[in-house]
Amino acid sequence: MLSRRILLIRTLLRLGPRALWLNLKHRLRLKFGVYEKTTPACDWRDEVPEFVSIFELPSLKTLDPSVVPNLPRDVVPYFSWQLRPMPTTWQINPKTSFDYGNEGRLRHWSRISMSAGGDIKWAWEASRMDWVIQWGRKVVAQTDPDLVELYEKYLWVQIINWKEANSPNQGVNWACGQETSFRMFALIWISTLLESPYREEVLKVLPQHAERIEGAVEYAISQHNNHGLSETVALFLAGHTLPSHPRARIWREKGKRLFVQQVREQFTQDGWYCQHSHNYTRVALLDGLIAMRVARQFEDHLPDDVIDRFRMAAKLLAGICRNGKVPNYGANDGANVLALHGCDYTDFRPIIAATLRMCGEHSPFLPGPWDELSEWFGLSTEETPPIDKPNVISSSDGGCYALTKGDWLATIRCHTYKDRPAHADMLHVDLWYGDEPIFIDGGTYSYNDPEGVGDFLKSTAAHNCVMVNGESQMIKGSRFLWLDWTKSKVKSIKPDECEGEHYGYQNRFGVVHNRNVQLLRTEATITDFVLDSGNNNLFQVSWRTPLTIHQIDDNTYRVGNYKVEFELPEFCSVEVNKSGNLCAFSERYGQLDFGHAITITWRGPKTVLKTRIKPLSERESELDPPEPRRYMEEEEPWPRTEPIRPKSAGPKLNP
Predict the structure, then answer these.
(1) Burial state string for 29-66 with b = 16 or more CB within 10 A and e = fewer than 16
(2) Which residue among 36, 281, 448, 556 is least crowded, i.e. fewest CB within 10 A of its CB?
(3) Burial of 226 (0-12, 13-18, 19+ CB in 10 A)
(4) What digits encode the pLDDT tens for the residues 361-384?
(5) Which own/partner contact pairs does 204-207 have at CB distance under 8 Å and 24+ positions apart?
């Protein structure tokens, strides 16, 4: 096995010389105070810029007042699930109470440590201004002029409070160019709705947002992820919506050029997104939606191949979308930017429908509240028949394969990584029946939590994968870096069957894992073939589910309203986990839930494990009801002692 140092060097080289050079430039600029000169700390300017909006008001038929959330005054939704008090200083992490504001003496953004104070995303979340979107939609849906005036004044007061506490380029909320971009999107949108004098006060803050983004856009590009897309489209947007600014032409040209470059680098031609994440694909598609709207409105057209990538990405998501939801695959940071609709955070229909319409396609969904986003972007939402979904939805470039048969949906990844992986989850399978997930991904929870929950959920143990000797498929580097990227091979792909194998354990343990997924109308079968070169390795697979589990016999279990039967290897042990780390999953950022898991552990040089899942008949469901959902008791530490504990996971957490 190669040394860790050699693996690190090899991984850094894979990131590419351009990205490494831009990252090095960023670090040197931080060290020598260059950003303090290019994006200087200053006061807000008092000029009202010329402004052209890209948004159009939706019809009241689409904007149903019943789906506009009644957000209480002086509270902010965090990550679309938790309400917290409206910040006062805007510099405090509400999760850890850490003050980035240096007791009122704001520092330049380049002098703020991103790793200090716990998960910095909690400090940023309120300043993304998702609450502006919710209050703005209340303004549009309201017919009482007195209430409209009241809501507008409340919005104006809160935005002014933010402005007074966040002088340009000072404090934690300027530390990230992407966060600045998301806030600018929200402020441009609300400027479309507000009347004088509130509108002019909001418009005053826009130019210095764009100037901050331009000042460090090279660092965003070096990350080769959605930061580059968001910040370059923000420049493209600012250049057109603030046409009188002295740098407007530069923003338009630079933003468009860099955005096109980023799309071509980050999306494969068949639509897979480089961050290996469905939620980050949604963020990237929102960036694309803004760019395509700007290009259409101002006749500053994007290349056809760029639009084709967005079209294919939206079709990939549409193919695996069940009642709005998609598998919670890959990193999920809770982002739901410009949520101009009344749908839940987990509902992907708004972005899928709007992107396809912007690309000249029909929406694959029947009319509903998800159409509101399309209308804000000036798109027709006339009723169209849903598109029939194909049996096989695949991105061979990205290694994403999904099978559908009847009510079944199975998604599987089989890919040799070319871009930085997020989770060690090769050959992970999500299995759904109808709208109900049966076997699931663990999600993300947090990028920086002291208990280590987020690190565990990235590991192989937190996925429906075969794990060897308690180790993940790849070796963990830094917080966002894996070493020794997994290689894989697709053996066959058919309308009802997919087979692949990966070699993540071959160098360390001499193990190759092969997985076959087959769907019939009446059942789904997952067959794992593990070839061990004779090192007496220990294997474990955990089938993780949000549903309850009830054992029927040695090889048969009831999982919710499904029967799961195993053909087991010799000398194996089976354990039903009803609490502990293997049961943890996170559907929303910062929120931890607990389901159940069936864990199978064995040794053997050449073993086959077959898992067969079928829905129970109506009679079987009545005869043997599932046991009630049980959450972990408060006194139980997390994780419990289990057959194998991943070496990277050591959190001690009571849910």
Answers:
(1) beeeebbbeebebeeeeeeebebeebbeebeeebbeee
(2) 556
(3) buried
(4) 999 999 999 999 999 999 998 866
(5) 204/44, 204/45, 204/46, 204/47, 204/48, 204/49, 205/44, 205/159, 205/163, 206/49, 206/51, 206/238, 206/241, 206/242, 207/45, 207/47, 207/49, 207/238, 207/242, 207/245
pLDDT over 70 percentage in the chain: 89
Q: How would DSSP label each residue in 206-256?
A: HHHHHHHHHHTHHHHHHTTSHHHHHHHHHHHHHHHHSTTSTTHHHHHHHHH
Residue 644's CB: how many other CB atoms inside 10 A? 18
Q: What is the pLDDT of residues 440-490, one digit of tens each?
A: 999 999 999 888 899 999 999 999 999 999 999 998 887 778 888 899 999
* Tens-digit pLDDT profile for residues 402-440: 999 999 999 999 999 888 898 999 999 999 999 999 999
Indicate yes or no: pTM above 0.70.
yes
Burial zone of 469 (CB within 10 Å; 0-12 exposed, 13-18 middle, 19+ buried): middle
By residue count, the chain amounts to 655
Residue spans of beta strands (DSSP E) within 18-94: 75-78, 82-85
